[in-house]
Amino acid sequence: MALLAKIAWRNIWRNPRRSGVLISALAVGVFSFLGGIAYIDGFSLQMVNAAIERQGGHIQVTGAGYHQNPTIRSYVDRKDEVEAELLELPDLRFAPQVRTPGMITSADQSAGTVIIGVDPDRERTVSGIPVSIVEGVYLSTDGADNEVVIGEALAQRLNVLLGERVVLMANDLDNEISAGAFRVIGLFRTNSTDYDKAHVYLHQRQARDLVGYGANQVSAFTVHLDAGQDLSEVAAQLRASLPTEELEILTWRDRSPLLVMMSDFMNVANVILVIILFSAIAFTLANSFIMVIFERIHEIGIMAAGGIRPGQIRLMLYLEALFIVVLGMLIGGILAFALIVWWSSVGLDLTNFSEAMHSFGVAAVLYPYVDWEHVASGFAMIFIMVLLSVLYPAIKASRFKIVDAMHHV
Amino acid sequence: MTRLFKLAWRDIWRNRRRTFLTMGAILFAVLLISLASSVQSGTYDAMEELLVRMYSGDVQIHREGFHAEQTLSYSMEEDEIDWASLKARYPWASAASRRVTGFGLASSDSSSAGAIIVGIEPEAEREISIFASTPSEGQPLTGNRGAVLVGEMLAQNLGVTIGDSIVVLTQGYRNVMGAELYAVTGLLRTGSPDIDRSMLVMSLVDAQRLLAMEGRITQLVIRTDDFRKAVSYAGVLHADLEDSDVEIMSWRAMMPELEQMRTLDDAGNYVFYFFLVLIIAFEIFNTTTMSMMERVREFGVMMSVGMKPHQISILVALGLALKVLLALLAGLVLASLALGYLAQNPIPLPENMQEMYQDFGFSMDSVSFSTNPKIFVFPTVSVTAAALLSMVYPILRMRRFSPVEALRKT
Asked: Is the Cβ of B174 closer than 8 Å to some Cβ of chain A?
């Protein structure tokens, strides 16, 4: 065995060009696989997350009955206690929100809208809106002035410019219409014009005044998870630590069947893409290994003539393949790692591909995401594929009649 | 040249295993990329059709500025557009309906909410769109006065259901205030939150009265014989109606998000195809380089009997080009066959997905494949380009061979 390993190792370096071809085939395969999968995972994560965020976050903690009938009447009554509980859980990103349907009116136009009162500092940790500001600024921490941030598309529809005044109207808890005047300090643009047309953000304090909430009342806590956190696990934790009789704790899967459908669709599509990628890699690897081994039939014949048994020849070929796989994976892995690190820092701006993407704002910049489970299964698959592609030529080569093999050119 | 061609042809069949492996890789790539883009393109096509049928219609005519501002000051006379004569002149214009769209505040006993008010001609609208003709509960509009269909989520937010009544307050044309009482006769569930969350549908006459729009409309919605041609149809109408102060928009112009989503996905796919084509290119490069290595001796023999290095380069290039061409053709033929087969025997969507679609008012029972020839362009171009690029290095190497050295090589 040790001797065979030595022979196999030397064989690899005896013909550097041939080994180079194999190792580079593997490296390119691993590189493409890792790059491709990081891209696919990143893309779907980003799309689904953007949609989840628009729907109110991965998990929403609201007053009981809110999902069925989202009015201001179902609310979280003891905000501070819930907040304290949420802070207990490690690494949870969450933000309180006051949400109500209402009207926004400018000097000459009005439109129905969803009014969202936020805690600007907390909101920054969960929401893409603060970084999607295309003009002006996001809400200030204290919300001292009556300031609002609205969608760019809504501003166009209302004919308001940055710095101009708008009036927000909503029903309060006594079913009276209440109104307040605000100044537009920022315009945002997400990848959904529909969303931009129908949402207005302001400080939670003023939103409370609008709907008649006390200082300790909010409509919802929106909870956002990082890619590694398990949705149902965190939801279960929350249900265990919060009073469930007065609160409703729903994940996005519970709340939005349409989004679940979209995300399932995406997963199916991703599986198809990964299969396509793997098929191509499998072909390349099988091709290279088969060709290389058949090239060496003459040499294998000589070894056999020298008394090496077919089983040993097979083992030797496997050992060679193993060395090559390890080297190739190492090189491909390092290259892919470098690519992903670079890519994570700069992002991939899809507007380079198409002018039409400009309307997406920051959503057009894609970042890769490394799902270690996918990476590990990818490595395992490539490994298995190599073993399989060596199987056929190795068996065939070790069974050649010695004389035939030596005559083979 | 003919002789070289013959030699190249023989070369590729001399080592069948290698030829088949290379060709298999190319064929596979072409087939898979074609099918993937077909499925994607087909799904988008189906979705676009559903959305056009849902609400927007193929083409809309409205006063210049209405689409951007959505206010009643951009309305027009009921008969400003002479539909009968348009229909007579353009055989593709198959149906039209008039709408009034405005905003208001809908109130029930318990709460109120902002709403989009849409007045339609129930009979004509059936030809154009499905949003109002198939309520999830209750009856479609008949033209009776005082009846409204309410978006399901809006009804929920108002706490009303069929049989209840609601009051709608509006600021109508020329800021005339309006208030009317309506009976809820049906609920709408379209899956589009925009409609379900905020829409109130009533007959055109009711809406005209509520919004002080007697004799006026906001949109004329047109159905054509082929919604895919809506952009050019809109162009024709635009030229025809140039003198009047109207704007003509195709569904593409009205729903830019659709185009955006498709573009995003397409752009995303190119990134993925980049990695795929990288592998294919490398595969071709690999095979070429290796077969060069294997055939050094053979080339040495050929050169010693008088073949020039450039002829050998041509020979190798020809052989490779033949392989690529054959594989490409085979891949395209196979992809077309597969698509033809799938058109006859569609793959049904899983039950639960079908139900989910039905819940949202769509009827989609199978995976949609596009047979638009455009889907073959990308695989053809990218695979050919990859093949050509990967040939460069091995062929350049060829030029440095000397026969003696080559012959010595084993």
From this structure: no
Under 8 Å CB-to-CB from B332, ≥6 apart: which residues? Answer: B30, B34, B376, B379, B380
pLDDT digits (tens, 9 = 90+) for A326-356: 999 999 999 999 999 999 888 887 766 655 5
User: In angstroms, rounded to a whole number, what is the distance separating the alpha carbons of residues A177 and A117?
Assistant: 17
CB B93, CB B57: distance < 8 Å: no
Structure tokens given for B88: 């007579």
- SS3 annotation, A20-66: HHHHHHHHHHHHHHHHHHHHHHHHHHHHHHHHHHHCCCCEEEEECCC
Summarised one tens digit per residue, pLDDT across range B364-384 is 677 778 888 888 888 888 888
Give the C-alpha separation, A401 to A227, whole Å.
57
Query: What is the pTM for the complete model shown?
Result: 0.73
The residues facing A4 across adjacent strands are none
Partner-chain contact B17 A102, CB within 8 Å = no
**CB distance B157 to B204 below 8 Å:** no
Contact between B35 and B210 (Cβ < 8 Å): no
Q: Which residues contact B219 (CB under 8 A, 6 or more apart)?
A: B60, B61, B62, B66, B98, B99, B100, B101
Q: pLDDT per residue over A64-82, tens digit each?
A: 878 767 778 888 888 888 8
Considering only CB atoms, B114 lies closest to which of A17, A103, A359, namely: A103
Q: A112 — contact with chain B (CB < 8 Å)?
A: yes
Report d(CA A278, CA A291) in Å as an integer: 20
